[in-house]
């Protein structure tokens, strides 16, 4: 994973937190939605990651005229034989880059639901398994609403994390300009899909204390029943809370993050570090919150402050395997 991160950093400047979260998603096998204004290397990062991962990758530019068959595939009739054959779509890849995903209409978005959750495609009643590992990394632009379609809540819930990419610092932007005007740099393939699957299995062996699982459930439960967790003032600001997928994503992400940080056990900091990334797209602020300019991140921060963090000691060596 260090070699993979090094290859990406040879091309992408800065964005340390963002890149760490992408590594977490790779290890946990979760899908990622990346949001940021144009020109912040969202697509470049995903494309570089695909080049550094020795596996198949496809890029789909989402447009308003895209059809579901353009993603998953379709049945083709052959007049000379009178038979049909199945042509599989570009979703059949290890890493799928869905560029500007919010530019496609609802019927295309719904085609991704089975793909992202079941990791299979059903065409004419026949199911086709996607290759393993399979990860969707989607990008969207938050500041341009013309010609865009908001993602349905059911699809947002299938993304393990929603990451926000911010502007680089002046020093980072200086290095970016230097690299762009200099000789082109290309990432080398350093990680095979078999190696990634092996590391995914290893990260699932990281020990998670039951108290941390309860803490993840409490954080998610506070978005549904704020008053029961000492946040009565939060109820009018939340239209809907996060689903059980949020609790699963928090624990699985924390386990992968601990693995990345070189520990065979999860700490409270691992889980709380990922809270905003796993919850911001799963909670729905009410009209009152939107009118008051209160963002989903601000609501998550209130939850983190109200729900006490458990004190977790490192487990005994016998339980770390």
UniProtKB/TrEMBL annotation:
CDD domains: AAA. Coiled coil: none annotated. SUPFAM superfamilies: P-loop containing nucleoside triphosphate hydrolases. Residues 1-141 form the Sigma-54 factor interaction domain. InterPro entries: ATPase_AAA-3, CbbQ/NirQ/NorQ/GpvN, ChlI/MoxR_AAA_lid, P-loop_NTPase, Sigma_54_int. PANTHER family: MAGNESIUM-CHELATASE SUBUNIT CHLD (PTHR42759:SF1), MOXR FAMILY PROTEIN (PTHR42759). This is MoxR family ATPase. It comes from Pseudaquabacterium rugosum.
């Amino acid at each position: 994973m260090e070699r993979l991160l090094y290859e990406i950093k040879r091309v992408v400047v800065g964005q340390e937190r963002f890149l760490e979260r992408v590594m977490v998603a790779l290890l946990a096998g979760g899908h990622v939605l990346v949001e940021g204004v144009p020109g912040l290397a969202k697509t470049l990062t995903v494309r570089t990651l695909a080049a550094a991962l020795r596996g198949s990758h496809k890029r789909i530019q989402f447009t308003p005229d895209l059809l579901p068959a353009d993603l998953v595939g379709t049945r083709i009739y052959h007049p000379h034989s009178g038979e049909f054959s199945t042509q599989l779509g570009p979703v059949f890849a290890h890493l799928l880059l869905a560029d500007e995903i919010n530019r496609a209409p609802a019927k295309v978005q719904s085609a991704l639901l089975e793909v992202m959750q079941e990791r299979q495609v059903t065409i004419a009643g026949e199911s086709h398994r996607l290759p393993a590992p399979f990860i969707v990394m989607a990008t969207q632009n938050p500041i341009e609403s013309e010609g865009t379609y908001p993602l349905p809540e059911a699809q947002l819930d299938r993304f393990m994390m929603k990451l926000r990419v911010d502007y680089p610092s002046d020093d980072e932007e200086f290095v970016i300009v230097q690299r762009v005007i200099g000789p082109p740099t290309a990432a080398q393939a350093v990680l095979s899909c078999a190696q990634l699957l092996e590391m995914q299995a290893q990260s699932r062996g990281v020990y998670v204390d039951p108290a941390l699982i309860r803490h993840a459930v409490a954080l998610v439960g506070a978005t549904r029943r704020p008053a029961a967790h000492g946040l009565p003032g939060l109820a009018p600001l939340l239209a809907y809370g996060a689903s059980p997928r949020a609790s699963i994503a928090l624990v699985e992400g924390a386990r992968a993050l601990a693995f990345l940080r070189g520990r065979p056990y999860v700490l409270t900091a691992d889980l709380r570090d990922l809270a905003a990334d796993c919850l911001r797209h799963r909670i729905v602020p009410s009209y009152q919150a939107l009118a008051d300019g209160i963002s989903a991140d601000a609501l998550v921060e209130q939850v983190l402050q109200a729900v006490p963090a458990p004190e977790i000691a490192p487990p005994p060596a016998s339980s770390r395997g």
